[in-house]
Amino acid sequence: MSKQRFGILIRPSANRVYAESSVALMEAELEVLDRAVLGGRITDVESRPIGGVPYLTFSAEDLSERDVAFLSNLSSLYALFRLAEDGDALHPVGLHPLDRLDDDLLTIQKYAGKTNEYFTKLLLNVALWSSASGPHMADRTLRVLDPMCGRGTTLNQAMMYGYNADGVDIDGKDFEAYAGFLRTWMKRKRIKHTAEIVPVRRDRRLVGRRLDVTYGLSKKEYKSGDRRRLTVVNADTLRAADLFAADSFDVIVTDAPYGVQHGARNREALTRSPLELLARALPGWVRLLRPGGVVGISWNTCVTSREDALAALAEAGLEPFDEGPYRRFRHRVDQAITRDVIVARRP
Ligand SMILES: C[S@@+](CC[C@H](N)C(=O)[O-])C[C@H]1O[C@@H](n2cnc3c(N)ncnc32)[C@H](O)[C@@H]1O
């Protein structure tokens, strides 16, 4: 079969998030998807304007339904077109994103220190596709951990995908704000659920508190007993290995503290070097991953180098992905933050 040419229209808001890096990040995300899940069938990736608007174009033999389903989840994809052989006519390709819930779950909360929701989706996608569970993105209920989850952007994206999600954060205000938000949102959306906050004890000592939520993606699923779980523990992530069962997560994804203060809030935790925290926390996180599971971390390269971050992952027994597209996620966020992504797999 002859090759066809396709064009991805990038979500307009991606330019606000990534400035001039949006096309390069989209290209790297597409290449990870292609290598890991689509079988390397995408070629001649090129960014070019069509009608004065930037598109990411590529060649592929006709895309299957499965291919389109995966492409539909690219974090900055707005629309997908097949390009006419001659000229610039665009034929829309129907999208089938995995989204199981309303997308205001990700956009309503606004606070200093929030990780942008599109970047969070990119990080989760890249980790997921690089894991043994990547090909099953749409046909299994996967389990995701964010061990420094803040007010839950990663957890919300995992819920959007219909997955079970768990989080840990040391900040009590974040814990309360997220628990309050989630309860209100579920009530307003009439999502059948139960939610409770319970104390967490180890050796009879109180180590934190846990939000336990059980819900149905639809009323029908809830009734039939097909339910999803979300838990958030307000505790130090250094305790993560005591909080969850070993070998139980498909991916662990986190946006590490930036080593700079967000807004006016004085977070004691941020005075620690993110590298030291990562090095100490990683052995516990690794125990929670399934074999073939992946850790994906974003962090600020202005305070910790890529080499040091890679060394910490390798030291914890993980195999980092560090070539091709995996080296092209670095981008500027603001004057004090240049963010990068690293991904490593548990053998
Ligand atoms: C960059 S923020 C993550 C923001 C989150 N992705 C969101 O969108 O809300 C880093 C988080 O790490 C948390 N943190 C720092 N040290 C921690 C520790 N030792 N244990 C658990 N969480 C920690 C902070 O409280 C903060 O919420």
Automatic annotation (TrEMBL):
Pfam families: UPF0020. Keywords: Methyltransferase, Transferase. The keyword Cytoplasm does not apply. Residues 140-288 form the Ribosomal RNA large subunit methyltransferase K/L-like methyltransferase domain. Gene3D superfamilies: Vaccinia Virus protein VP39. GO terms for molecular function: methyltransferase activity. SUPFAM superfamilies: S-adenosyl-L-methionine-dependent methyltransferases. InterPro entries: RlmKL-like_Mtase, SAM-dependent_MTases_sf. GO terms for biological process: methylation. This is SAM-dependent methyltransferase.
